[in-house]
Amino acid sequence: MRHVRLAVPAKLWALLCVTVGVSLTSNAVLTCTLTLLGFVYLGFQRNWRLLRSFGLFYILLAFLLYLIRFHGFHMAVFYVLMFWSLSPVFIVAWDLIATPPGELAAFFSRMHTPTSVILGLLVVFRFFPTMRDEIKSVVRSMRNRGLTAPVQLVCHPAVSCEYVLVPLLLRCLQIADQLAVSAVARGAEYPGKRGSYYEKSPGAPDCIWFGIWTAAAAVF
């Protein structure tokens, strides 16, 4: 089943409203309602993979909070509370970061944003997803060579880190070269107005979520 991708303005507005809502309260229950609304937001877009990942992470946070509240568990209390409070922001922000770069570039280009700013934002937005995929590739390669055994990691931690960092740094250099070539090929240096295959105007679903997030922020 295909994703129902919302337009970039709707995602930016969602991030702004969630940030405002989180900053106006320290109540864990109210923050939870924003997080649940974020899960509905992901479900509306049929982004099941992201919904499943954040859902499992949120269940883990809820379990840790239960231990803190009722069983005197005091390890990493600050970080648990921080991630619990900022979970709505993480959900909406990651959905924005995972937006196809073409849609982001098209939106910022319509806003007459300078090309250097657009390229910088795209690099920032795609950094974490790209690094996640590259680390998975490196770990998979190490596993195929038998370099992820617990004995290997415990007895040779420095060598294990080297096995991860060296190919990762080389991939970063290759990706940087590919990005430069791709930017030139797509007309990044062209001074005139550029079009895009990814231009997407807000529709009825975007207007609905504009209203929902605005109402949520107004309640807070």
Brief description of this entry?
This protein has nine helices and no strands. The chain has helices at 8-23, 28-44, 48-70, 77-97, 101-110, 115-144, 150-155, 157-185, 204-219.
Overall outline: flat
**Which regions have little confidence, pLDDT < 50, spanning 5+ residues?**
none
Total of DSSP H or I helical runs spanning 4+ residues:
9
SSE series: HHHHHHHHH
Q: How widely separated are the two ends?
A: 34 Å
Mean pLDDT: 83
Q: Radius of gyration over alpha carbons?
A: 21 Å
Structural class: mainly alpha
Strand content: under 5%
Features:
mainly alpha
What does this structure look like?
The chain has 220 residues and is mostly helical. 76% of the residues lie in helices and 0% in strands. The chain has 9 helices and no strands. The protein has helices spanning 8-23, 28-44, 48-70, 77-97, 101-110, 115-144, 150-155, 157-185, 204-219. The model has no long low-confidence stretch (mean pLDDT 83).
How are the SSEs ordered, and which strands pair?
Layout: H1 8-23, H2 28-44, H3 48-70, H4 77-97, H5 101-110, H6 115-144, H7 150-155, H8 157-185, H9 204-219
